[in-house]
Amino acid sequence: MMNLVYTYQPLFDYFLLAVGFAYSQQMVLRAGVFSIGSAGFASIGAYFVAIVVKDHGMNAIVALLIATLLGCVGGFLLSIPLARLRGVFQAIATLAFVQIVVSLCLYFDELTGGPQGFNNIPKLVGTWHLLAAVLVTIYFMYVISRSAIGRAFDALRQDETVGATLGISIRKYHMIAFVLSGALAGFFGGMQSLYTFSIEPEMFGFTFLVAALTYIILGGRGTVTGPIIGALIMSVLPELARPLADNRQFFQGILMMVMIAFMPHGVFDGLVLHLRKRRAAARDKLFKEAH
Amino acid sequence: MIAQQLVNGIVTGSVYALFALGFTLIFGTFKILNLAHAGVFMSGAFIGYFAVLNGLPLWLALVLAMIGSGLISYIVELGAFATIRGSGQIEFGALISSIGANLCLMSLGQRLSNTKVLRFPFETFPVEFYEFGPVRFSFLQVIILLVVVVLLMAMMFYLYKTSFGRQIRAVSGNERVASLLGVNPGLVYFQTFFISGALAGVAGIMIGLSFNSIHFYMGEPYLLKAFVVVVLGGLGSVHGAVVAGMLLGIFQNLAVAYLPSALTETIIYGLLFVVLLVKPSGLFGSEGVQVGVARR
Amino acid sequence: MASLVLSNVSKRFGGLLAVSDVNMEVPPGKITGLIGPNGAGKTTVVNMITGLLKLTTGSIKLGDRDISEAEAHEVAFAGVSRTFQNIRLLPEATVLENVVIGFHVHVRSSLFAQLVGLPSSVRETPKLFERGRQLLERFGMSRYADHPAGGLAYGHQRRVEMMRAVATDPKILLLDEPVAGMNDVEATELGDVFKELAASGIGLLLIEHNIRFVNQLCEQVYVLDSGAMIASGTPQEVMHNPAVVAAYLGTKK
Hints:
Chain A has 291 residues and is mostly helical. Chain A is built from 14 helices and no strands. In chain C, a hairpin with a 2-residue loop joins β9 and β10.
């Protein structure tokens, strides 16, 4: 029994980190913002925490709070120019932001360790910390999704013009989405630093943002459960069968194509929508029989 | 020194242009970002490598790489884009499913190469240099430039002087109207993706030869550069991609002499960011760009 | 209550003058008609009022407040709501959720309360849903509350859109061809709903194609043709105006 726990504990830890980053990615997509900038904020949070905790001996909790704040400020600043862009242009601009962060981390190598990475970060975060962080995040995600903010996000994602004519300020709510997404990425970036001993610039590049997108495509954009399901599928699936683990990327690719083609809302959101339709049809039938 | 960097820059830039051309052609025609273009580029290099390894002459390897990567590009269209056409979510969906297709291609490349860097056999390409005053050309550079110029001219002719080119533009305007006018959209999709893929394949083999190194993740940096090129040139603009590709190549080669490479990258992506904000239609594009709900 | 007043409003798209020098008033508590042939510029006028298009010249006022430059969401907060000619519902959301999003302008809990889940926000949500159910009841749509809005029949979708607009509790309600594609029975039913809304003090602007329907409901009718206001007055006056007859039936020149 204990063996089983030891074998799967790292897997579980990575799953928890994945859930955190998935929520960061979901926050923007939920509001209809096509940003893939989470990787950049995660990088900022991770490097900040690593540097101040290892080199300056800052308290880890304080460092994590500041990393969260940095994510907020970064999200806020990025949202101002990006308010003018939509769709693929938003995606490309945020990709440029991610690349700028990567190249800056490489350039300031005295501070960041450059391409060799930043090593020997004290390991202050374990499974329980990650679990607590994810649970608190789930609480916030739930509260937000049940509030007027969540409803405004859902409206803007489905039809921006309609949202605006009903009084939803697109600029304001997109900004909120950026700030919250940045906060989550900054925080979990910091957690990852304190968990993995070492970080390097490319960890928060293209591969990172593809992974974060995958969780949301698999799980769903509109529900709190969606990202958990998405991260779970990507963490557990390769463990189920050896061939899946050997061809992890191949299956990830196939999954992305199949999901977008046949279940564009994701596994969980798709299920919710499907059940809704079925229930509506059943009620219609009952109604017709009664009359 | 500067003249030498300029020459190197033009050669690098011409390969950037070749890569970006297929990318921007697909965006201009179908309004989708095809991230699997990186995988197709890598496929071209792989096909060329295995052809040479099996004793075929280099020119034949080049032709095979073109045809092969053209077909792979069409397979990507069938697997990743044809399935979601008309779903109303093409913009977001295409990005995701092309990332998926790219992962598949990369994963196949990884298997084929056993995660190793592949190198062409010794003397696949004659290493010769020509000197013109202070400037030194390699034979390879001359060939690259020549091939790129020929392909560009062929493509311009094809796009702007033939009925196929008109059909492509008709379908990009309105697919239903075009098919009412007797254009076969399926054929147009095939041609566009085939041409786009063939160009990427040539770019792949050229890069493989230049650095004599072929690996399964070689496409990613070129894809990221392609974003810069096509946005600078105007998303969808063929002429713009050529000019912007050249400019980027020249800038990069000049910068190498004076700046640390990481800083060059910062400047390039910073430029991409700024252009998107100031003039999202690019330096040469004229099309209006959607900017959300505001009084217009 | 406040009137919506358009003064000398024009809109130019490039070289094309889509709307020129339009003057119009939508008073509270009444149904005002705006009719005209296809392409006359009716929807352009609505888009300018609701903050989606910039005015080339002129001004739009709601009571004392100038909303000519206000953004779309500010126009909504000022008290102008609308429906769309080509119905625009939130397709993934249920009917009830579609209506509840219309209550956005009435949300009182602060952003902070919503973010951290303070009671003011947590308690507000079920209240808004309860108000949504009441509204559904009023429009006879209760049994569709949990249906996905995208799957409803056409006439029902129009009703959902209207409920959503009413949910904002508007001073002025702009209805862009609300009975298009409906039969006479459905249209008459909806006409009664409009009268009820007007009686509650809302000023309605009915943009229509169907002249008969407009004549039944409106006291004041404006006629737009090729972007210009060619006539206004009671339905009777307007119907006998030779310019209007010519615009609808074509002229012999």
